[in-house]
Every structure is written in structure tokens, then in C-alpha cells.
Amino acid sequence: MSTRASSKNSKSKGRGKGGFERLYARWRRQSLARRVETGAAATLAALLVLALVITGLAFLSYQARVSVVRHGQEESNDLYGFNPGLIISDQRFFDTTSMNADDVQAFLDKKGATCTAQTTRSSQPCLKSYKVDVPSKPADDLCDEYQGGKAQSAATIIDGAARSCRISQKVLLTMLQKEQHLVSATAPTPLQYKAAMGLSCPDDADCDPAYAGFFNQVYGAAHRYRYYQAHMDEYQFKPGRINSVRYSPKASCGASDVYIENDATALLYIYTPYQPNQAALKAGVGEGDACSAYGNRNFSVIYQNWFDPPKQSTPSASPKPKPVLREAGRFYRRGR
């Protein structure tokens, strides 16, 4: 029995050796040019296989990294109610059906119940009572037509800009509070209306006339979000991948990886390019440390408190604004 097995193994080895020798002999009989061609093809095939292996390993490594980053984001959400990769869902960000102008007016009346301001040199009327003549805006490739009119209320402007550019009324209300505390202001100042959304109003100069004023700020911000979305490839933050997001304008404060889950969160980072550090998150609606930035934390806190109360306990007070004033991709900060 062992003799037969040994014989079979010997024949198998012989066939294997003979097969190689026949291939080698065939290669030797080829012309030099043909040998070079065959060798090059074999080398190329080997390189392609190697490239596929390396690419596959890199993909697996990236997927493992994504998994780690997303797990950390979920832990942040569990601890602080803030997921840096999913600040708000696309459905909520782009939903223009949950409110109309009457709903917005009722909301402003409620949040501004204690405001009794009148127009003076140093103050403006309450947002709930604010009215201004508004020009029409033609439709373009980003937004539908906005129908202007005489003495349009703040509620009409917010609802009209939301519907024209298909950005949620709730998002615009949250932005007004986040940037200038305008929704709940008891004595609004001219600057709060002039730079209502912090758009194109640098600290060291007057607001760009094209964006100064309540209507230009609200409609301009809604339009700007749609511009960002249509030109996402031109900006640093992109959905569906890992992004490095800084904690502060100061580079020394560092950054960390954030897997941005959706368009809405990417748009918020393009508008306000920082994430809260742990000190800012631990502070709730208060101030963290010298490296804390608050814009996107405050957006999340305000939106959740007003429109999407989570099951877990979150701060109920409205954080004071730390506005970032933006101009064509640049940004300017008042205070910290």
C-alpha cells in the first residue's frame, strides 16, 4: 500500500516538474522579442495583483478607521446629545412643510413674549413685530422665485426664504438664535438685524450691502446653503467620508476626525467650520475653555430644545451666541 502511494507521489512530482520544464523549454524556443513581451506581461500581471492586494488592504484599513470614528461619535451622542457627524438629519434640514408663515409668527410671538421694544436710535422692534419692504428675487439654479412686497413681516420673510430655497423654517429660526439671539431678544439692536445670520459682515468693516439687513441675511443664508450643496466639491467638508474638523480658529487647539454622515451636517460645517471640544460639550450651554468653539454645538442645542427634544436630558437654556461672521468662504469672529 505504501509502495503504491509512494509511486503515485513520485509520478505527480514528475508531472509537475515536467510541466515546468516544458513551459521553460517553450519559452526558450521563443524569439528574444517574444520573451521580452512575455516577461513584461507576466510582470504587469504580478504588479496588478499586488496593486489589488494593496488597495484591498487600504480599503479594509479605512473601513476599520471609519468604524472607530463613528463609534466615538455615537458615544458623544450618548454622553452629550451631540453627534459631530450627524448634527441634524437631511430630512429635518430640508423640510419646508412642517411650518407655514402663520406657524412661524406664532412661534415668534411665543419666544418673544417678553419683548416690548420700540424703534429708537439704539434699538429695533421685536422680531415678532418687525416689518420691512422686500424686493422680489428671481428664480435661479439654486432657489425658486421669492415674491417680495411692502411691509413683509419677519415670519413671512423666514417662511418665504425657506420655501424659495427649500431650507427648513426651523433651521432658519435656529440660525437666527444661534448667530444673534434674535428670536428671543427683548431689545434687539440694529446690528442684530443688520447681521442676523452673520453672513458677509466682517468685524473690521461694514456688512457687504448685498447682504446687510434682515431680509438679505435670511434669504442670503438660505441661498448660500444651496450654493454650498451644489458646489460641495469646492469645500473642505464632504459627506460620506472622514473629515478633519478643528476645534477652534486657533490651529494649536487641534482637530479630530469626523465621519460626516449627510449633506446637512457638511453644510453646517462649511458655514461654521468648527466642532465643540469636550470642554464645550461638558459645559452644556455654558462656556468651555480657551479652545472651545460653540457654533455647531449651539445649533444642535437650540434646535433640539425647540423642535426635537431628545429622550435624554439636555440643557434647556438657550446658549448665548458666539457669532462667526462669514464672507465668501472667509470667517470672522466676535469675541471667542
CA radius of gyration is 30 Å
Please count the beta strands (DSSP E, at least 2 residues each).
6
What portion of residues is helical? 40-55%
The best one-word shape is: elongated
What's the mean pLDDT score?
A: 85
Report how far the terminal alpha carbons are from each other. 88 Å
Tell me which oligomeric state these chains represent. single chain
Main features:
336 residues, mainly alpha, two-stranded antiparallel ribbon
Characterise this structure.
The chain is mainly alpha-helical. The protein has 2 domains: 2-25 and 32-66, no CATH class; 87-336, no CATH class. It contains 11 helices and 6 strands. It has a two-stranded antiparallel sheet with strand order 1-2. The chain has a two-stranded antiparallel sheet with strand order 3-4. Strands 5-6 form a two-stranded antiparallel sheet. Strand 5 (324-327) and strand 6 form a beta hairpin. The termini are far apart.
